[in-house]
Batch of 2 targets.
Target 1
Amino acid sequence: MANAALDPHAAIATTASGVGQGLLTTADGKPLARALVRSQRRARRRAFLLVLPLLAFVVITFVVPIGQMLQRSFYNDGFSANMPQVSAWFAATERGTDPDDAAWTALAQDLVASADARSIGVVGTRVNYDMPGTRSLFTATGRQVRGGLEPPYREALLEINETWGDPRLWSVMREASTPVTANFYLAAVDRTRDDEGRVQQVAEQQRIYVTLFWRTFWLSAVITALTFVLGFPIAHLLATLPMRQSNLLMILVLLPFWTSLLVRTTSWMVLLQQQGVINDILVWMGVIGGGQRLQMIYNQTGTIIAMTHILLPFMILPLYSVMRTINPSYVRAARSLGATSWTAFRRVYFPQTLPGLGAGAMLVFILAVGYYITPALVGGSSGQLISNMIASHMTGTLNWSMAAALAALLLGAVLVLYWLYDRLVGVDNLKLG
Amino acid sequence: MKTTLILSTALGGFAFAAAAQEVNVVSWGGAYEVSQVEAYNKPFTAETGIRVNMIAADNPATPLRAQVEARNVSGDVFDVEVSDAIRLCDEGALVEIDPASLPAAPDGTPAADDFVPGALLDCAVANIVWGTVISYNTTKFEGDAPTTAADLFDTETFPGKRGLPKNPKRTLYLALIADGVPAAEVYDQLATEEGVQRAFDKLDTIKSDVVWWEAGAQPVQLLADGEVSMTTVYNGRVFDAMVAENQPFEIIWDGQYMDMDMFVIPVDAPNPEAAMEYLKFATDTQRLADQARYIAYGPARKSSASLVGLYQDGVTEMGPHMPTSPEALANAVMDDPEFWADHAAELTERFNSWLASS
């Protein structure tokens, strides 16, 4: 100890390790470390209070509604909440149990109660998701039993409709009797459950979602690549031209960006359709005959062309903002040290544009994955994306649970890609503007 | 100053809600909305002093369901399709409407007998009958003109692209009709696997010639541009193009798909009394007949038919343009909401799967 006290480095050593009597203190004698923590805590609290309005806004307008929507993908109490007795019977018995008298009584009483409460449509809709054609079974039975049903219930219900005895119906009702279900996710990847509850693929002519997921990601990747190929030279030109000219060019980039999405999409229809401007010009020039007009829209080509055009500014702008900051002397130095222009571009210039490229690619890809209006208008049959199915379930079939499951899968896939991007490139390495 | 402004705005909002001197009607927009404003809203406001706010939606059933689910209903009367009216009624989202409370026909026939079959439901009253019909551009065919649904599928005799809606409801039935199935047996066929397969097989024969449309304005545009030579289209829209815009189009009534639009009132509507007033007023004999002056949709009351006169241009006789005329009804398929409530999801998936496969 005595030696340590003499050693001029001892005080530093003890401070660094944070123990011993050489502890640093503030002017009024409190330990420095604790005082620091306290003052930082105060600053943090103040900072938190400053962002609190924004946080509350984001939570109320974004997190809560999206959370509620996503909750529908695994939670649907359409059956369980309106058919409590038969749900209790399902909970008490093993899968595969044949319905006994208790089950039929519970079912009949629930049906009567639900029909009187006008909730039978909700029940039928829920069961119909897993077994098409059963919605009218519930609503029609409901209309007949409103006001009461006489025992024996089994015979009475079978008399109304024989389908009540179908084992598949009972199996599906068992699935629906718990509000938490994975069935919507199964359906979203073209899977279903058979009578015994095993997961299997749906019939071939019903398969659609997996194909569309792949197509969505593939087309988004193609569109991202195209915006890069088209946007990189433009961004470079913008970044290297004198301010006057580059500002003029920038307006040309931004003008379509400020134009309504629908206007741009319909303009492409005018240009690309078979009786459209481009085909007219080709026929007029004699490149193609009148009967061989090119089919450039209402298919995948149309989707790719229109979406590449619409998303191009999202690639150009981040690239441009990064390119402006690249010091031209680096490339000059590389050239003067003997690099060819290609090597100088590849080894010196291009790597410096990566943060802009990463940001642009990410923006374009994520926007493309969720695109909806453009493929709906110009996609025809082969250019549809998964978002069109989500929209169809939201507004057409009103199966919001299914829409939520598809959306959740899409969100999950995008998050996985984001994570991959972070691992491979690094999110810190991103420059949005 | 600012606070005063906010306060007065908020109070103004409350005052409006409390006075109940208005009714919010959610409808489909476009020429259809105009016809409702002219035929229902203006005389309604003139007679009762209740202001009518028209709100346009792509499909009013979507906001209706969203509002009921969120327990924040802002619309009073919604104009929806039959299948949605039945579904929403079964789900308890709509108030029941007693047919006896609706005004009787001028000759005293009670409303229950005056409306066409299927027009009165537990929770809904139909206002119009409309059709999805085949229409063609007369400049595209030099020889014979097409006359039947089968001609739509005959691209040899009648060359050119075809426009079809991108949904199973208004395509499968047409394929069956064109394949020789009588209108009355269409749903029996569609209920079986063989019938569905037969419809898809028939659609396969023209799949590469089809331009799929989604919004009602698209087929008219495709036809006018010459992008398609024949298409199915809503009869009111194509009438508008033919008469108001003098487009060289003709209608084929064979294989017409008939549908109704219905007025419904959601539970917890903010102005229930005004909503019921409006609904009764808008579906009386004279109002339904008046609407035909502005759009070629048929009135849902039999007693309105004789009152249907000239189009607003003063020269076009509306009778033959009604989807309810005898010629139009000869081989027409009526929408079957029960069937579609059961099978819409399944057939939509299959249809999309068929579309995606090449």
Note: The mean pLDDT of chain A is 87.
Target 2
Amino acid sequence: MLQLVLVVWVLSVLIFAWLRSLPGGPVSALLGDRGTAETRAQLTEALGLDDPIFVQYLRFVGRALTGDFGTSTGVSPGKPAMDLFMERFPATIELSIAAVLIALVTAIPLGYVAARRRGGWLDNTGIVGSMIGISIPIFFLAFLLKYLISIKLGLLPTGGRQSATIDATRVTGFFVLDGLLTREWDAAWDALRHLFLPALALASIPFAVIFRITRASVLDVMDEDYVRTARSKGLAGRVIRDRHILRNAMLPVVTTVGLQTGALLSGAVLTETVFAWQGIGQALAIGFERKDFPVLQVVIIAAAMAYVLVNLLVDLSYAVIDPRIRTAQKGS
Amino acid sequence: MLQTRVTRPRRIALIGLAGAVAVSLSACAESERGPDAGGGEGQTGGTLVFGAAGAPSNFDPFFASDGETFRVTRQIYEGLVGITPGTADLEPELATEWTPSPDGLNWTFKLRTGVTFHDGTPFNADAVCKNFERWYNQTGAGATAALSYYWIENFGGFSDGKQPSLYKSCTAKDESTVELALTRFTARFPTMLSQSAFAIQSPTAMEKYKADDVKAQGDSFIFSEYARSHPTGTGPFKFVSYDEANGTIELARNDAYYGDKAKLDKLIFRVIPDETARKQALEAGDIDGYDLPSPADWASLKEGGYNLMIRDPFNILYLGITQKNNDALKELKVRQALAYAIDRETLVKSVLPEGAEVAKQFYPPTVVGYANDVMEYPHDPAKAKQLLAEAGYENLKVKFWWPTQVSRPYMPNPQSIFGAIQEDLQAAGITVEPVSKPWAGGYVDDVEVARAELFLLGWTGDYNSPDNFIGTFFGTTENQFWTSGSPWAEDLATAIDAADATVDNGERDAKYQDINRKLMAEYLPAIPISHSPPAIVVSSKVQGLVPSPLTQEEFGPVSVTS
């Protein structure tokens, strides 16, 4: 917990100072070619940007403690930055969860099979595939998928989270889930169709890593004494696979998924831009272009918090997977 | 001591709990669909989805100054005066006729009768005056240029009297007659009232939803409930909803509209910030059109069977000159040499989109006071060299600022424009030192505080007025060109004010022509380059969209076929 507070505080100072050290700023972004010396001065004063930076920072912290994180100036002008974050965060979570799910359900079985049949055609294809997955720029992959599947074949929509013409009720901000909860099946299906391609593009990052880790880890575990013992005492293949190999091989995989959160977010910036996905990645991209300080501050700090929390969850989940960690805790 | 082992019975219990949570969640998550959910089918007009490049700032046009906001509010609201579709000419809208007093200080507007706002309240003289009073009486955040940009640009100050205001009073003579009194004559009135910011809004709705409750909080602004979700006008479309999570704004036909009712049932604006994504959304049929397609895409859009409409250019791109930082630029001959050095004909043909024209003065020919006999600067590198030699600057060196990460209708591709001009200048023996910066990341700041020497900038006209162009550029001696060092700066500013205050049309026209001639021959504070046409594109299903040179399209007459 202390760790989290410290991370947030250091990060907030860095972000705050760094944003304001960049040339240009929100005044130029807002007024552009319409600005005059007078209107610029007036706006600078109204936004409080003429004060020394530490005064601005203290004011920011003071307001932040009361739950006010400023309002957006560029992404969605006039909207409280925290509202904007809360509204867009589910979009990114929805996208990330879908991407991780796609990666998990494909990469783990493939990694397992590849390890069991090391050197086989599936193993080689998987290795080459994961190489491509790691090295292909996600921007390009997203673009390619969209061009082939949405534009050339017309199978899926090109972007957005839901068709503009569909009348959907919003409950949680997770559009697919909302559609299921409210039994608006068409809205859920429509959201799912919009979700598929961006999630697939984003899944390329965790897929490649999870596949390789699973394969390597299964190879390690297969050589362990307890697997040989299990086999020699005549246990069924399925039991050995599930309880002895997979379970033990999963530890490094789970760690990897946690560490991939950061990569997912940076991937989301590009994927969301290509697919007009109204998430925090897109907000970051637009925020930088339009110098939307409040939104950038909130999004970056909150994303860092999410990263820390996810990795905390990963640490806790070890206990569920690995009996040895539970035993150690019991003894303590 | 921790015990986190999940035993089998517990696991079942957990699954049960999750199920119970899901059930209870879904119990409180009722669908909010109306009885006519999914509408559109079976009715007459259908739905049009138009791609927008950004989110609107709010739906109260008085507090807006950006095109994304006005595109939406223009369909909801109307002004006293309007613009004939497809032109920049004035026509009646909520006022049917208007007459000035001989001195041009008092204007009597006859209002259209039988008009109601979307909330059912009547539009009348009282409502008009309440709007003017509301604008004039803004205080605090509402009276800053970031919010009331158009009021300050056009009317000047507010009732606090800190700055002189053009507005004096508004009187409701009877139910359908309004008298507006001004403090001085300006040729811009009443045309200036055609701007979206001066749309007439429902006083009842504004009061109910606290329209003036706008705050500067910390480093931004918070808009009123009215501006966020209850905009109420008289236009052919009514506001339905803004789904921020999905980036869509929904409008519906106003069935009580007094004029030709909108053909569409629904008009939806969908925010797609990425340029390429907008084009692809159109190609995939997810949207029916979008504004300002990149000129690089024009050919492929036309080939794809889309209806690409090129508007008449109503803007100006100029090569800015800041006299402050380079003594050579203070010399008229040097500035003229720059003008002769640039091959604007070739630039317009090779770098700018189809329909672009060479600019001979600081505004397009459609605007009042355009002079046909200004001094021209045909491409002539030899003459440029000669002028530089005469001025004693044979080895002229200039720093040339150009912006990245921006595309403007007057400047669709800054890099190519810069490249072409740089080559021309070098061919005339001028050494160019390029400085490129991101638009909002230093460029605008540098130009505004006169850090540049040469720079690229421009302007899109708000309405048909010379003052809207040259008044903006040279109306004060404190400007980006740093003309205050020149002996003529004061004369120029005074002449522009005097022309605007001239009541007689012919006389005023002559004054503007005279200013334009002097600007091009004697002053040349900057070099007009080109007028570029912005385009708008719709799919072949869309009919009835009339492109506007002011980029102010109305969707009332638009229909879609399925």
Note: The first helix of chain B runs from residue 8 to 28.
